[in-house]
Amino acid sequence: MKSPQSADLNSLRIFLEVARSESFSSAALRLHLPPSTVSRRLGELEAALGVALLLRSTRRVSLTEAGKHLLESVGGAVELIDRGIAGFQPADGTARGRLRVATSVAFARTFLPPILKRYAELCPEVQVDVQTTHQNVDLIGEGVDVALRMGEPVDSEMIYRKIGTIEQRLYAAPAYCAGLALSSPEDLMHVALVAHRTRMRRELAHWVLSDGNRHFTLERPPSIVVDDPAIGERLISEGLGIGMLSDALAADGVAAGRLVPVLPEWFGPPTHVYYLYHQQLGDLPKVAEFLKAVRETFQVRSK
């Protein structure tokens, strides 16, 4: 059994909100969390403390004796901690300190420069610490303020918003295409493929292509599998095969003549881009201004 010391501050905040509102749904709404997350976190808190804190019925929630004691014991202390943390926000609203951002190498290479340029204009006194990884980061555990991700997030306790859509097509090096006669997706059954791991199904590259009217699903073993699209773009530019890249990631290679579209009338499924942050950080000036810079950057790109 877990010791009482394993109860974390966020779970206590959730408990206090439920205890005062006597409603899971009301607490979830105020905390910007799914009701299932509120219920799960309270169950974990009760397990950690070894006592039942709440009596649940179909209409309301009431406190047990242990729940009343916990509310009286920690309610004021948690509020004092939150006020102390809020005190670190400058009175003049100026953003200062360090902002930790997590994203993939491909996203950082393609989109981060204009975002950080705009952010430097908004918050010149903030130091930005960028963590690049192809894996989803535990924002709370890693102390990350904001994550930028391609594909819908699965972090149920985070606030997330779709900020844009990335179109994907097939690309290759001009020299690789020189000896090939590619007129339809069926011709891809006999070429080398460079595949991103998220586009794999079992051991096969799984590419769903469309020209707006027709659809074609390609499933076959790739020659190379990579974890990050930026690495795939480099390998494709070196003539190691055909791969699916976002138009944004391929743009520099196309402009420099390193890449050319393959079957340009066919395209892959669009990928949505999101930012994520913990709901208790959204009001911090350094975070709020960064999210603003992200939105403005993608608004410009979409015009």
Automatic annotation (TrEMBL):
What protein am I looking at? LysR family transcriptional regulator
Q: Which PANTHER family match?
A: HTH-TYPE TRANSCRIPTIONAL ACTIVATOR TTDR-RELATED, HTH-TYPE TRANSCRIPTIONAL REGULATOR
Family of the protein in this entry: Belongs to the LysR transcriptional regulatory family.
Q: Spell out the PROSITE patterns in the cross-references.
A: HTH_LYSR
Q: Which residues form a coiled coil?
A: none
The HTH lysR-type domain, residue ranges: 8-64
Bilayer-crossing residues are none
Q: What are the record keywords, sorted?
A: DNA-binding, Plasmid, Transcription, Transcription regulation
* Superkingdom classification of source: Bacteria
Q: Which organism is it from?
A: Ensifer adhaerens
UniProt xrefs under Gene3D superfamilies: 3.40.190.290, Winged helix-like DNA-binding domain superfamily/Winged helix DNA-binding domain (1.10.10.10)
Q: Name one Pfam family in it.
A: LysR_substrate
